[in-house]
Amino acid sequence: MQPSTLMGKRLKFQRSPRNPIVAPSQHWWETRLTCNAGAIKLGDRIHLFYTARGQDDVARIGYCRLNGYDQVEERLPYPVLVPEDWFEQDGVEDPRVIPLDGQVRVIYAGKERDMARPCETSIEPQHLLRGHWAWSKHRLLLPTMVGFHNRNVAYFPRRIGDRYALLHRPMTLAEHVWLSYSYDLVHWYDHREILAPRHGYWDDAKVGIAGPPLELDDCWLLIYHGVEARTWTYRLGYVLLDKEVPEHVLERSEEPILEPEEEYERVGVAPNVVFSCGAVLDGRTLVLYYGAADKVLCVAWAEIPW
Questions:
Q1: pTM
Q2: Which of 2, 31, 88, 305 could be a cystine partner for 9, CB 3.0 to 4.6 Å?
Q3: Number of domains, the chain
Q4: Per the omega criterion (within 30 degrees of 0), is the bond before 197 cis?
Q5: Would you list the DSSP string of 61-108?
Q6: Tens digits of per-residue pLDDT, 191-205?
Q7: Nearest to 235 by CA among 210, 252, 216
Q8: DSSP 203
Q9: In terms of residue numbers, what domain contains 138?
């Protein structure tokens, strides 16, 4: 696909009238916030894994299952992912859910004091569907990079050629999106920057991915968040990546595709924030789950124009 065939096409999102679809509850572990969910569609249901904080301010991950895009069919009264090792002792948050090699893989930020590092666990799809939370042992995803923050991390949902590909944001000198490759999901190399903030734009302070890339017919669709330095507002945009050489950006949105407008997006734990960790494709419909004001979980959808 040539860039000229992509220009002028835009995502137009419709918010759910049920928003917010998940809000803090009386359960002690999720009384403060419930936002930022990874999403996966298995069978005819969408499954969400959302960030929650409660009375002790430790982040844990809750679960709910949807009927359709926005109707909560089941929501568990307990967290399904909790801290279990030293590198995540102060919380697990912002999960991205990726189907890869027959497993449902969850990459999340593990908090240890002031450090956030990418961590991973996985589960068999049939166990998830039965509510049998038999997760694999939690592990650090990039152990050679443990000395600095690294957030907003996800695999591509298939190999690129014979290599796995990973998007992440190592917070060294600047907050840009990087791409790395691996043959075994353990040793990562060929690190390269693919997305940076743009001076004078709505994403001039920092950028980071939303959920994992979504495969279209001719390219990868990647939703990302951008922060404006002047107001520190979080908005969402997109890039289209070459299908076989994903470090090549074919198109990047000039304007945000979703920004804080509703009261639940403007007022909360952190004002003026829309932040996504996951979306699903349902035919030509992109269903985007996003946290609003770092407090509640919402959904919007749009038809894919590419």
A1: 0.96
A2: 305
A3: 1
A4: no
A5: EEEEEEETTTEEEEE-SS-SB---SGGGTTEEEEEEEEEETTEEEEEE
A6: 999 999 999 999 999
A7: 210
A8: T
A9: 3-303
